[in-house]
Protein 1
Amino acid sequence: MGSSPHTGPIVVSGTGMVTALGAGVPANLEALLKERTGIAPLRFLETRHRGSLPAGEVPYNNEELAALARPGEVRGWTRTALMGLLAVREALQGSGLDPKGPRTGFISATTAGGIASTEPIYHRFFEDDITDKELQYLGTHDPGEHAERIAQELGCRSIVTTISTACSSSANAIMLGSRLIRHGLLDAAIVGGTDALCKYTVNGFNSLMILDPEPCRPFDASRRGLNLGEAGAFLVLEPMERARARGATVLGVVSGFANTNDAYHATASSPQGDGALLAMQRALDMAGVAPGEVDHINVHGTGTENNDLSEGHALRRLFGTEVPQFSSTKSFTGHTLGAAGAVEAIYSLLAIQEQVMFANLRFTEPLPETGLIPIVATKKTEGLRHVLSNSFGFGGNNTSLLISAP
């Protein structure tokens, strides 16, 4: 199965996404440029928190998603799987890659899988009060089911796997795909993540008392927590020489990546950002890029008291007084959990392609402990070559990606 390792750059030749900002990369770019947030009251998720907890909900019901994603057989497709398929189709269309290639892998990430479809029938299942139509969703509870379903729909014949490492999941999918290509195990990889909102995640995060009842304010002294979101986002990765040879457009380079673990707490980052610091350092070391050469950072920036302070300390430790301009695009989309790393990697690519830095919405006052001030308004720039994208998850699972101009 293996071949010679690829020593050249691993590039992105296609991207696709659906978020609270809309379906498609162009729709997301337009919203980012216009500073139009997707965080709003819930419309589709049935929960007692509908009127009190805003979220970054994808603006389509499941029937509309199915019409956009066009699965061959609608039966059994969860919201998570539909968002993933929709994003993958866009990425493949832009790339021109044939997913049926014998050495093209599919690596997807999620935290909740198809739970949004199994929650409504849980109690009735044990009471034998479940319809045949609902029975189709029992198997979708498995987080890996969506990846198998999408891969089968596309005709993928090589490596298919699912990653679930909380908030860093799809960043790790990008990292794994890059590594498999580098080591000659794949010629190309479709990588990313998809996660639908569900009661399980809303209630779980609410029990931790880290959800903001208003639109979130990452890195602000008055921050009160995060807003959950949902999304599907995927990228096509392949070696530079292969992309060039088949005439694909090279959107950017995954020039560095690293994963570390704090081993500090199940749901909190280490106070001084030890794991985050190490992840950023190692990603830059892999790329041969010095801290002073980083032009922009798409921070993890959830808006929680712990995360923003921990990440802020890590930034200060790595960059000192010269922290690059940074922002959290979760102020637009909410925290999309297993999809967040891929969403923000695509936004990092857009920053380079458009030579623009996106706003950190609703910021007013810096954290007194770090004094860091994010980008408060979307702005054009020049010479943007290296963007660091951070994804730091529960359990201390930290991943940093360095996205660079081709």
Protein 2
Amino acid sequence: MSQSIRPNYGNGCFADLPKLIQSCLTDQPAPTGLNGVPDGLLHKYDTVILLMIDAFGWELFQRFAERHPFLQRLTQEATLAQWTSQFPSTTAAHVTCIHTGLTPGQSGVFEWEYYEPTVDAAITPLLFSYGGQFVRDALKPTGVQAEQLYPAQSLHQQLRGQGVKTHVFQHREYTPSTYTDWVCRGAEMHPYTTLAEAFYNLRQTVKVAPKPAYFFLYFDKIDALSHYYGPESQQVEAEVEGFLYLLERALIEPGRKEFSNTLVLLTADHGQMPVSPQTTIFLNADPRFAGLERFLRRNHRGELIGPGGSPRDLFLYVKDEMVTEAQTFLADRLHGRADVRLVQPMIEEEYFGPLPPSPDFLARVSPLVILPHNEQTVWWYEEGRYSMRFYGLHGGLSAREMGIPLCMITFD
């Protein structure tokens, strides 16, 4: 069994960021007991900037902090803490959290794909599409509305009600989109094409924006290249070098002259685990798992439901009356490669966030989850829909996936 990391909700988890940010811009009390965060740092600022760097997890951050001159200087000047991702360690759960203030168990948006009762099918919530599809807005013809799939709560609307103007900088590829338009209600949107453009426009907006103000910037290219080439690849090394160059030259160094009473937070949603498509176990194509389908739920059209999650956290929609039998069937065949866990005890142990979970989450989550060991993957194969082509993945509970940095830089 691989060593797993529990999400550190309330004491230093990504899910603690929304309240931390609110406390630094409003009269809301500052959270206490956050790992590595001095109480004196959490006072009121005119400006808070959050840089969410997808997949720039603790391991990758530390690898560069040990040898990169700028990051070495920055970590000496700044306050650096090791926090945890939420579970699942997936982007869908984290972008939803940062825009709503809700954990996966509260928001119900817990993975890249999962079963959605409203349409009686698996969906990919960030794309507003069906599971196994990589096109946007395939759900529009069904008539389902964004408010039926995404949580009503909005951090941006909360902040606006407290007198704080909010700004969101995201890539033009998905700004606007059905998902973005809903979760970013209340924010002023700033689509960008390049990171240099984003940092420059961010600085210019900080100069003129009425205070107090909150700025959120999301950058996804380290994650994308980690998927395609692996998190330890030279392509990822080059991308991180380029990111750090722009961070220094286009934001931090100019910010020393331009920013005042400002807190900059740099973090990630998760890390990544090196994996190989060549070693993936496809449950429905491997003869060892013949007979698996008898355990699985079907929708009203007679189609198998799922899969949910990813090859690092496969949520399997097993019939309620066959959960124990299915767990034994899978655990016997995955011994030494993956753990097969009951989801209900994980809910009760607050892996998905504080209790109680929302009705939406309970309606969408499966009774079993398969968590492959380090560098292992377990998935589903369906021509044109489900395959495995990545060399880096996340979603599970390993230290590589769950460890994230929180780097806090103040500008007086």
Protein 3
Amino acid sequence: MAIIRKKIIAVSGSLRSNSVNELLLSYLAEHYQESLDIQLYNRIAELPHFNPDLDTENLPVSVREFREAIEAADGIIICTPEYVFSLPGVLKNALEWTVSTTIFSGKPVALIVASGQGEKAYEALILIMNTLGARIGEHAKLLISGARSKINRQGNIPDEFTAKELDTLIQSLLETIKDKPPVLNLV
């Protein structure tokens, strides 16, 4: 019997090309390609500044496409740096475009903060995703401090502990997807 790969949307909070966060997501896409179809959603910079007045039936196309990508996925991986003790504005903006929806409600999500320090962004990301109703597995949260020393520019992870932690994170995400309660279609 063929393995059905789970569709995962991966969002990097960094706009820098070849950022540590993008390299981490590419690493995950390559190393878990047998069980996961990880697609990097790299268009959050195209989202307009969040404005509740624009959150109507005539949504900006970029917002509609972002929401549709999140909704269609079996799970989400967010990997972000920390900027000035918080989340990058572009990632927070993207998440704000989902507050009037339920697309993260019950959605299996894994969270990675990979930065120099990262504690404040880690706390903020967990708070925001819990507020949005995401299902975050027990081991689907990871803080990688000193990230530049743990992943190289070729996208390899020479740090054995970090590689094991990423494996634990992916296994937790897969378990959360597997245990996802069915969607009730109440007509």
Protein 4
Amino acid sequence: EKVRFLHRHFYNRFEFVTFDSDVGRYEGFTFLGEKWAQFWNSDPKIMENQRTAVDWLCRHNY
């Protein structure tokens, strides 16, 4: 079965940046969220960790 990993960041009940394992990168929804997404997407270690999180975090809990 398909398993999906979402890493979402909220401030005052408003989502400003998220990582979706189906997309494979961070997406920002505000000015600050776009800056954070750009920074995190440019770091290979962070991206490797997030892209493999569906395997080491989600699948065994599903």
